[in-house]
Design a protein that fits this description.
By secondary structure, the chain is an alpha+beta fold. A three-stranded antiparallel beta sheet has the order 1-3-2. A hairpin with a 5-residue loop joins strand 2 and strand 3. Helices cover about 60% and strands about 15% of the residues.
Length: about 110
């Protein structure tokens, strides 16, 4: 378990959730993985403002926290795929609620 997550466990469950999901682009990555398995470059195209280094770090943290599963195939060129674990899939209602809230918020500010 990552140190920030174990420290958050000493505070409260909300802090645990923030520690696991609060990184740059993490919830957006989860949202895109709800649609199925994706390759790294595909995720990069879906999140064009994220740089490669950040995407790599966030995916590794999500993997370490049991939200994402990474599968590397022994091929040339290498093929790596990312998919949600059962724990990651359990985030679907939360992600959908946040997406709806964000859309409403953006609409209100756009007026």
């Amino acid at each position: 378990m990552r140190l920030p997550v174990s420290r958050a466990m000493e505070v409260c469950p909300v802090e645990v959730a923030v520690s696991v999901l609060g990184g740059t682009w993490k919830l957006t990555l989860v949202k895109h993985l709800l649609g199925g398995t994706r390759r790294f470059n595909e995720l990069g195209r879906l999140v064009p403002l994220a740089n490669t280094r950040t995407l790599t770090r966030q995916l590794r943290e999500l993997e370490e926290d049991g939200v994402v599963k990474r599968t590397a195939y022994p091929e040339v060129p290498p093929r790596v795929e990312y998919a949600l674990t059962e724990r990651g899939r359990s985030l679907e209602p939360l992600v959908k609620a946040m997406e709806a809230w964000g859309a409403d918020f953006a609409r209100e500010w756009a007026v």
